[in-house]
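Hi U.,

Before I forget, here's the chain from the pilot set. I'm dumping it here mostly so it's searchable later in email.
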Amino acid sequence: MNGETVADLADWRRRVSDLYAEIRRMPEPPQAWEHWRDTRDTLFKCHPQSAIEEAKRADFTGLNIYPYDPALRFLVTLDPVEGEALNLPAGVDGTVQALPFARTNGLQDRLGGELTLYWLGGYGGGVFLPFIDATSGSETYGGGRYLLDTVKSADLGRTEDGRTILDFNFAYAPSCAHAPRYICPLAPRQNRLPFPVRGGERS
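Structure:
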């Protein structure tokens, strides 16, 4: 990448980080979601690092997002787990090592299962929560969506009692869902929810 591209990428990362910091300060989840939706639409429309192909940006009118559903916002506890690390394909970067470290407790009744959180290897690391559900491949991207990716600042935070906020209205598709030039780590089969999750970004 040349210097201009690197500067643009740093700016994109900074804007996304600022966005999630703003969301965590907003007291009403629906209004935070509207801010998330509108800001991302602007970034995807105008920013040089948008995953939307440049030739298509002039006609881009916004990401396809499900309406906000308060029933898809959960406060979960995390139970420690151990397991072998997964090696997720990551294009020119080779593979990304994802080590399972926690399992959610609080999704079963509504979504039919629980999800594993992974710690990404490499410099700095980060929490990664991808998932597949019954909409994947029909209503949403077939490779699944992301809910947490702290390397990219996608993190809704925790409550005062230490429970983790998982709001599936903020689920988003990886960049490879928008353009073939990207190769993204996809959700492993271990993180498949049997019920549909009609919140967040759709196809």
